[in-house]
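Here is a typical protein record:
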Amino acid sequence: MATSNLNQTDLEAAISSTIDQATRQQILDDLIAAGIGYTSPDDGATIPVQEGAAISNPDPDANVLIEINPNNTVYVDANLKAIIEATDSDVMLSVIGSGPVLVATGAGNDYVSFVSSRGTDFIGDTTVFAGAGNDTVFGGGASELHGGSGDDVLVSGSVEEGKPSTLYGGTGSDTLIGGWGDDSLYGGDGDDWLSAGPGLSYEVLDGGPGNDTLVGGQYLLGVGGFGGELDGGAGDDVLYAGEWVRPGSMMMLSGGDGNDTLHGAASALDNTMDGGDGNDLLVGSAGTVAEYGGSGNDILYSNARDLLEVVLEGGAGDDTLVGGVIGGSETLHGDAGNDLLVGADETVSEYGGSDNDVLYSGSVAGHGSFLSGDDGNDSLYAGAGNDLLVGGAGNDLLVGGAGSDSLYGGAGDDVLYSGSNSLHGTLLDGGDGNDVLYGSPHSGGPGHYSDTLQGGAGNDTLIGGTGTNFEHGGSGNDVLYAGSDALRATVLFGDDGNDVLYGSARNDSLYGGAGNDTLVAGSGHQWLMSDGNDGSSFIGSAIGTASMVGGAGQDYFYLSNPHSSDTIDGRGGDKDALTFLDHASADLTGISAGNNGFLEVSFSNGQVTHVTNIEYLIFNDGQSIRL
């Protein structure tokens, strides 16, 4: 034991749990020389320490040093400062009074408690160094309790709000319990159990190394905790913010290194949870506003309420984020790793981050979510609301829902599906890359919404659904299929590139755009046109009727319906050819001038085809006529 600044009115001591005989005797000699009392009572004795006692200096500010044996009870006057040293093993010590006390015990399983002379757990400021062994210490007043090595139980003695105590478990599997004040609990090495006390206080719990359990403040007689910080430290820890934390309190939970489990407080309105390194489980509560998984494969659940703005961030690793906010808004960030994000009714935004992520919108009708896959080959699924899905870089899969969704594949070879119902339409935009877009199988019907498919840059394939109204291939060599809606026609625009466009059973319009395009009419009344300078091919249906308009290059027109009345305009170029796959040259009955500069090509079955700017007529028997 070492002591400095010794005098009648002040004593500052630093005490080791193991004190050699020579050092202890020197301290005792110095204290006695300074007029400070000393005693070494018998085992089981009760020692009164008060003003005017024979063993103490009558000065009201005097200090008393007592060396005790096992099973002593010490009474300390409110006006005195007492230092109690227990060098024997397995000491059971009760300190009664209200003055400040410092206790140091040696090796052994010790029991130390502090009780006021009025019978309540209230005493002056206390400091206890329990030493080695499995010790139990009940503090008094603003306590500083050191468990030392061993499996210790330390209980704060603070009974006044705002009067702090500090508990140090040391090495071993310790149990630390806070009081009413602003207490700090440090578990130290070992698998510790730390519990904050009740009261309007702010408590700090630090588990330290080991697999620890930390429990935040609780309600007591209708009075709740004011908040606090829970830090698990290294190890696989379990943190509970508290079942009934006072509404409006702030709780911060940090798992630290290891595979941790964090539970938010149900009533607090400003919970923050950070899993740290390791594979963590974070379960938010009604008042959790932020959850951070940290590195590792983490699972985060949100259960927030009451108009809160909530953030869930997975961090590095393959994480699972599940939204659950009600009456507020929510943002989910997967960050690095192959993450799974599942939104809820009120989830506003989901960001997959880098790598290959899966995002689900939980939107309901009347609401909408924003889903962004970011980098990687991502899969995004819309909900029932009006969602916006952006695949980002990578080969992504985007699936629309029942609402009026917008799907953007971004860079990469993407696949987009519309899921719109009969009352809503979806926009599908493949972006850069060789994309495949599918229209919805649900019919829009007259006056209802319908899908729009845009391939963007790249060699895209667009497949219209029953509710598709417009398809745009964009740049590149695209393939477009008109929708199959029994009541609605589709407009197909190939744009730049050598495109192939297929009509349907409805009255579709096919525009090839620039390039050497191939336009195939469907069974309905089709309108086909190309603006290319390189020449295009126009193929009529065996049962439909078509109007075909060529471009500036050498175009080729093919008709297959022997009963239709088709109209063909070669426009520019001087080598446009029309081939009748349905007629031989012998079927031709005449060619005459018609209206508006058209020629009428008549056949023996009564069919008449109207042509202009066509240089060659070719029949299925190989014969041809130059016009």
Observations:
- DSSP finds one helix and 61 strands in the chain.
- The helical segments are 21-33.
- The two ends are 122 Å apart (CA to CA).
- The longest strand covers residues 63-68.
